[in-house]
Amino acid sequence: MIQSLARAFKEQKQSLTQHHQDATSSEASSTTTSAGVPVLNPPALSPDSRQNKITVCGMELEGISISGQETCIIFPRAKVTFDIGRCPQRACFQQTVLLSHTHLDHVGGLPFHVCTREMLSLPASRVIVPQGCGAGVRRLVDVARELQNSPPLEFEVLELQAGDDHILTSGYLCRCFPTTHTIASQGYLLYSQRRKLKAELLGKSQEEIRELRLAGEDVTDTISVPEIAFTGDTSAEFLDGLLDPALEDALKARVLIMEMT
């Protein structure tokens, strides 16, 4: 898994480097003069050129991560976005925003997410934030509402802390784990929920199992499988918390997305 992830992001880096070189070349060729003053007319970067889509371990991920500018990782299968950055267009169609922390490059696009979903008559945004960040996040959206003189916006803010669980509308179990940053922060781990025949019923015939089910007995156990984890900005010190069960599972996830501060 680690090798696949490293290869995917190496290819992404090469693509971005080539794009930068092309843009630089284009800037040089599009230099004009106005009253003897050089004027650069570089082509604007389209959203598609700034976002990247990759598939890792069968999971489609899309988004952008540029230090100090914006971070938004979209996981459409779970209908979530890890952080919101400047709110890329596709992020608007994911109902749940999992905020790792509230630095502007991770939260700045939230008002646009909330407003766009309301404008498109989509279910209200659901924003999960670290403990103590809820009031500030609400004020951020309220200021945007006030500036555009719009009626109150419907959206939900839920404060969670490390170890807390939340069932997403997509059916995934979301669990918070501790990270270390300059302000309140946390990571998120998503588990898929699977049903498995109880161990004591292995070897029983289908007819016997059917009779037990008809009699009202539960014949399966729910198995939680760690699928994808996101740290947000963090230092390596968060690894000191390896005794935390949620963090242990995060490091066992099929896909681990890390931003090292």
Automatic annotation (TrEMBL):
InterPro entries assigned: RibonucZ/Hydroxyglut_hydro
The segment annotated Disordered runs over 13-47
* Record-given protein name: Metallo-beta-lactamase domain-containing protein
- Ranges of Low complexity composition bias in the record: 23-35
The record's section on PANTHER family has: TRNASE Z TRZ1
Source organism, top-level taxon: Eukaryota
